Amino acid sequence: MTDEARPCDLLVTADLILTLDAGSRIVKSGAIAVTDRVIVDIGAAGQLRRRWTPARTIEGRNRIVIPGLVNVHNHTPLMITRGMIEDIGFAPMYTPGIPQGHWLTEDDAYALSRLGMYELLRAGCTTVMDFYRYPSSCARAAAELGVRAVIAGRVHDAEPGTLADGKHVYSRAIGTASLQENAQLIERWNGHDDGRIRCDWAPHAPDTCSDDLLREVKKLADAHGGNVHTHLSQLPAELQAVKERTGLTPPQLMDKLGLLNDRLIAAHCIHMDRADIELCGRSKMTVAHAPIGNAKGGRIAPIMELQEAGARIALCTDTFSGDLIEAMRWAISMQRINRQGNVLDPRTVLDWGTRAGAEALGLGDQVGSLEVGKKADMVLLDNRSPTLAPLIDGYGVLVHSASGHDVDTVIVDGKVVVAQGRLTFADGDEIVAEAQKVADALWSRAGRQPIG
Ligand SMILES: [Zn+2]
Questions:
Q1: C-alpha torsion sign, points 83, 86, 435, 437
Q2: How do residues 184-242 score in pLDDT, each as one tens digit?
Q3: What whole-number distance in Å separates Cα of residue 381 and Cα of residue 355?
Q4: H or E element: which one contains 49?
Q5: Which residues, other chains included, contact 50 with Cβ-Cβ below 8 Å and sequence gap of 6+?
Q6: What are the residues whose beta carbons fall under 8 Å from the beta carbon of 393, sequence distance 6 or more?
Q7: What is the 267 CA–ligand 1 centroid distance (Å)?
Q8: Burial readout 358-380 (b: 16 or more C-beta within 10 A, e: otherwise)
Q9: How many Cα atoms within 13 Å fall on the side-chain side of residue 164?
Q10: CA distances in angstroms from 91 to 134, 163, 205, 234, listed in the order given
Q11: Span from the CA of 319 to the centroid of ligand 1 (angstroms)
Q12: What is the whole-number distance in angstroms between the Cα of residue 229 and the centre of ligand 1?
C-alpha cells in the first residue's frame, strides 16, 4: 500500500480527536492530514500513515485534538484594564479612573494587541473577532502571530472623555475620524493572507453612536458585506441614554435603523425585557455571550430566553481573559443559577465556542469543527495534565475542568503557531515585557503606581 501513499504537508496524530462535527465524531488513536492549509483526511492513525507521506508529522502521543476555538467579541488593547476593572467598574469606556482608549498611541495599541493575541492563541483561540481604536495595529499583531481574525474599528461619535462622567456628548469630528479609521483598516487588511484576516464594521453601541452615525455604518456595512459588531443592552446607562434620545430601547433602535438582523453580532444583551428578547429572537441576530465579564459585573444575561426566542448564541471573552474554555463553564454555571436547573451541558457550550461562533462570523464552511475540506485550525491538549483526568466522555472534563493552560500546540491554517506552549512566530516574553511598559505608563497617568 505504501507505494500508493500521497504527499501531504502535515500529519497530526493523537490519542483522541474530538471533531465536534454534526455527528460528534470521536476518533481514538487518530490522525489528521493537511495539505494547502486544508484538512484532507481524518481517521485511524494507522490507516492515514499508509495513505499519506507527510512533509512534517506532529506525533500527538498523550494529546487530545479539538477544533480551534472561536471567540466572537474581544478588544485586545483593553487587556490593559484586566485585574483592575473587575473591582472598579464594568465596561471600561464608561468607567472613570482607568486608562482610556483615547489615551493610547498607535504603538501602545500594537503592544497591547500583541499581548492579547498571544494570550488568545496560547489558550487555544484560533479565531478571534476584535475591535478597538487603532484597528490596523490589531490586524498587524494578528497577522504576525498567525491567528485567524476578524478585525474592525471602534466606531462612535460620543466623546469618550465624557462617558465616564455619565454624559453623552456627540461630536461629528470623532464620528468621522472613527469611520475613516475603520475604512482604512478594510482597505489595508481585508483578505490578508488568503483571507486569514478579514475586516468588518463595528459601531461601538447604540448610545455611543448617534442615529446618523448608525445609519452611515449601516450603509457602509451593506456595501462591504460581512457582519456588524456592537454592544447591545449592556448597561442601564445605555438604556437610559437611548430612551432619552429616541424613546426606544436599544434593540428597538437597532431594528428601526435596519441593523437588527442575522448579520449582527451583539455582545452582552443583558438588560432586556420580554419584548426586547422576542425582537432579538425574531431577527436571528447572534448574541456574543460574555459570561465571565457579565458575572464579574454582577450581571446575568437571559441567554436561554434569547436562544428559545430564536437568537443564535456564540461565546466571547470580551477583554477579561483569553481562555474560552473558562468562559464555557461560566456560561453553564450562570445559566444554571439563572434558571435554577440543569439547563446547559458541556457539548452545547463547546458548540457555542466553535461551530456556532464560526457560523456567526460567516466562517462556518471553513472552521469550527474538524472535517475534511475545512481549514486546518486545531488545538492539541496535553492529556497527561491532571485537570484532564479522568477522561470519560471527553466533553465534561474538557469544559468543567480543563483550561487554556492545558494547550500544548496550536495550528492555524495548517501552520504551527504555538508549540510546547510557546509562540513560534514571536517571542512571548518580549511581548509581555513590552505590554507591561505600556501598562505602567498608562496606569501611572490614571493615578495608580504599578507595584513593579
Ligand atoms: Zn466588548
A1: negative
A2: 999 999 999 999 999 999 999 999 999 999 999 999 999 999 999 999 999 999 999 99
A3: 19
A4: helix 45-51
A5: 1, 2, 5
A6: none
A7: 6
A8: bbbbebbebbbbbbeebbbbbbb
A9: 16
A10: 19, 11, 12, 8
A11: 7
A12: 9
Q: How far apart are the first and last CA of the chain?
A: 62
CA distances from 15 to 42, 191, 416 (A): 13, 35, 19
Q: To which H or E segment does residue 69 belong?
A: strand 69-74
Counting Cβ atoms within 10 Å, is residue 66 exposed (0-12), middle (13-18) or buried (19+)?
Answer: buried
Cell of 89: 467598574
Å from CA of 55 to ligand 1 middle: 41
| Residue entry with cell 499508509 | 50
Query: Helix-strand-coil percent breakdown of the chain, rounded to 5?
Result: 45, 25, 35
CA of 304 to the centre of ligand 1 (A): 20
Which of the 8 DSSP states describes residue 158? Answer: B
Whole-number Å distance, alpha carbon 294 to ligand 1 midpoint, is: 11
Identify the CA nearest to 371 among candidates 6, 34, 7.
34
> Could you tell me the three cell numbers for 135?
484597528
Rounded to whole angstroms, how far apart are CA atoms 120 and 325?
11
- Residue whose grid cell is 437597532: 254
- Please give the Cα distance from 240 to 431 (Å, whole number): 40
Q: What per-residue confidence (pLDDT) applies to 3? A: 64
For residue 296 the three cell numbers come to 464579574
Q: How many angstroms separate the CA atoms of 23 and 28, rounded?
A: 15
Closest CA to 347 of 5, 9, 25: 25
Q: How many angstroms separate the alpha carbon of residue 314 from the centre of ligand 1?
A: 14
Rounded distance between C-alpha atoms, residue 200 and residue 330, angstroms: 28
Cell numbers at residue 231, please?
A: 454592544
pTM over 0.90, yes/no? yes
CB atoms within 10 A of CB 127: 28
Average pLDDT over the chain, rounded to an integer? 95
C-alpha–C-alpha distance, residues 338 and 107, integer Å: 42
Dihedral Cα 351, 272, 292, 391, nearest 10 deg: -30
State in Å: Cα 72 to ligand 1 middle.
10
Parts of the chain with a pLDDT under 70: 1-3, 452
**231 CA to middle of ligand 1, Å?**
6
d(CA 234, CA 231): 6
Secondary structure letter of residue 336 according to DSSP = H
